[in-house]
Amino acid sequence: MPRAPHFSPGLSAIGGSVFSALAHRLATYRGEIYPLHVGDTWLEPVDGCRMEDLLAADNPDMHRYSPPRGLRLLSEAIAERSQRRTGVATDARDVLVTAGATGGLGAVMGAILEPGDEVLVLAPYWPLILGIVRCFHAEPVIVPIFGEGTTASAIVTRLAQALSPRTAALYVSTPNNPTGRVLPREWLEAIVEFARRERLWVASDEVYEDYVYRGEHVWCRALAPELTFSVHSFSKAFGMAGNRCGYVIGPTSAMDELCKISTHSCYATPTASQLVALRALDGRGDRWIDDVRERYRAVGEAAAVALGLAPPEGGTFLFADASAALDERGLTGFLADCADRGLFLAPGPSFGPFPTHVRLCFTSAPPEVIGRGVAVLAERLARRARY
Amino acid sequence: MPRAPHFSPGLSAIGGSVFSALAHRLATYRGEIYPLHVGDTWLEPVDGCRMEDLLAADNPDMHRYSPPRGLRLLSEAIAERSQRRTGVATDARDVLVTAGATGGLGAVMGAILEPGDEVLVLAPYWPLILGIVRCFHAEPVIVPIFGEGTTASAIVTRLAQALSPRTAALYVSTPNNPTGRVLPREWLEAIVEFARRERLWVASDEVYEDYVYRGEHVWCRALAPELTFSVHSFSKAFGMAGNRCGYVIGPTSAMDELCKISTHSCYATPTASQLVALRALDGRGDRWIDDVRERYRAVGEAAAVALGLAPPEGGTFLFADASAALDERGLTGFLADCADRGLFLAPGPSFGPFPTHVRLCFTSAPPEVIGRGVAVLAERLARRARY
């Protein structure tokens, strides 16, 4: 055992922050900063859903513990909205309110994994999923699915090749972070059918479900409610990432098991965060989303045009291959050069086997700031490496 | 592996809610309720430290992500206060802001435990510690330390008997939940010396450090800063349990490892919760505590007198042996009879091998409500079992 001063050897496979190499430069840069490395929004939450709108006099229990499963009214509102959108019968017992989607995926993985188990992680992926799996002493197995000529049957072939007797689940994200792609229905149907055949749980990361600009979002739970945990986020939907409120919807019989993990991770989601989330679900949040979606779409499309990329189908990211602009210092040098101009990007390797890509978030600063940051990137990408 | 629809077998050892058996009665009871089963406070946080006091206009990033380690200003304020109180040199790098003390203990256990490791849990203990250890596939080993004639050397003997090659850490809580005892300095010195000799990490749960009515609180970190993780809570100190903000202080070199766990559990502590915590540390919170401590003391002492118990030395709980009042239905019947009168208590077995005890919180409702609930309990305890 790892007696003091040693730590769990299993942790060594978990990286530190994706952005730690850039943190020093970010703190010391003097000019205008283009923080395109973080996934966040420049917008404040809709009026009525800010912390200052929660009066203690109107909410006498707002500084006290919430039930571990979440406030009953919030679980009910989530279930009602989910059923309306997905067509899947859903009630409050199928919902676990969590500390963001991060807490939700932690609850899922903690509930289903034993040490040594494996999770098929469809790549590119949201970076933290690897560490979440490893926290429970299980192993992520990376399965790239995007690329030229990808088909549903090619994805299933790759999944089958990666399967082992220890495989317990697969993780998929749509709209996809970092690519901005919305997974086509036929891909998701093939992935879910594979999971059903192999008796794998499906962890479906749908935190950008409300930001689809092209095509349709397919709710994974509608394809296989008996084995899907869909993970959602008030952070991304309603611009309240700092509140740490998200949720998981899954089979009724599973939710007590998930709740064991979340109860022992943070006891309950912050009460005030749940109360503003509940307010967002009374209609005003959906009206805000309808407006914000068009604003996100406009800034995302403008960024794609400036960078010569296909427009985003959903989400708040673009994923660009910088290979033509790299010199002998590789991606690290490219990111450093960008940082020297105030532009911060997330490195491709954080999202899978993408050694020459960068991810940018086009909603993390006001559109005019994004525009100037994207112009810096476009200029850097246009420089051909000199060798 | 636990393929769908199965779950991690390791979870089966983790119980559901301590209070789930009472939840139905609580929801349906019609008369005045005495909710003495929860550990919370009837007070609102000090003025200026409620959510409505955080204006978005003054805090432009308050709905956005905090850094995973915590807001820099908060970490610095915590370190400064801790150094002032404990005399141990402390800076912001020694602090991890967490989702309550629950998140703090999760980060500690996740960072130090491998599957199969053991943690010596000094009993009686805070119930969730068992599940936190088990979430990481390690085993709690319960070591009762309270009781007639307990001495420092007797505690060390029991710890030595419970030690195994798999022991990685020990967990101790002072002021103690559920007993209301403040651990004497010589006990803690002996426990920490044992840990040092055996190279065990020490997880010291000190969330009630500010509520000591008799004796002195000994900061475990002052005894062995190189192997102690002390866990603290804004919930308990400042009456903001719903905010889910606490912190761990430990060796500088360890904190990156702990942060890996908390980042993958909830990403970061809610930003608004950290902002009100920071406000509480500007002096007004300590003045609030000085006032509240006397109010808690008064209600705790009155409850102890009514129940014929020794007065609480610290914390917000009393732990009463109901054995003389049990009938053939045992503790379950006793708790049910109490619930039939609106009185809800936590069962002794949740805190260790205490089959006939009940725990009551004397701060979970206004003092006059507590007084009436305690009167119900005193009356029930005075009934001798009829057989």
Walk me through what this model shows:
The structure is a homodimer of 387-residue chains. Chain A has 387 residues and is of the alpha/beta class. Helices cover 39% and strands 14% of the residues of chain A. Chain A is built from 13 helices and twelve strands. Chain A has helices spanning 20-28, 72-86, 100-112, 128-135, 152-162, 185-198, 220-223, 234-238, 255-266, 271-280, 284-307, 330-340, 367-382, and strands at 34-35, 95-98, 118-123, 139-144, 167-173, 201-205, 228-233, 246-249, 317-321, 343-344, 346-347, 357-361. A seven-stranded mixed beta sheet of chain A has the order 2-8-7-6-5-3-4, sandwiched between helices. Chain A has a three-stranded antiparallel beta sheet with strand order 9-12-11, with helices on one face. Chain A has a two-stranded parallel ribbon with strand order 1-10. Chain A is globular and about 55 Å long. The termini of chain A are far apart. The mean pLDDT of chain A is 94. Chains A and B meet through helix 3, helix 4, strand 5, helix 9 and helix 10 of A and helix 3, helix 4, strand 5, helix 9 and helix 10 of B.
Number of strands of chain A: 12
Widest sheet of chain A: strand order? 2-8-7-6-5-3-4
Distance between the termini of chain A: 51 Å
The profile of the biggest β sheet of chain A is: 7 strands, mixed
What general form of chain A does the structure show? globular
- The number of helical runs of chain A is 13
Structural class of chain A, by secondary structure, is alpha/beta
Salient structural properties:
homodimer; 387 residues; alpha/beta; seven-stranded mixed beta sheet; three-stranded antiparallel beta sheet; 13 helices
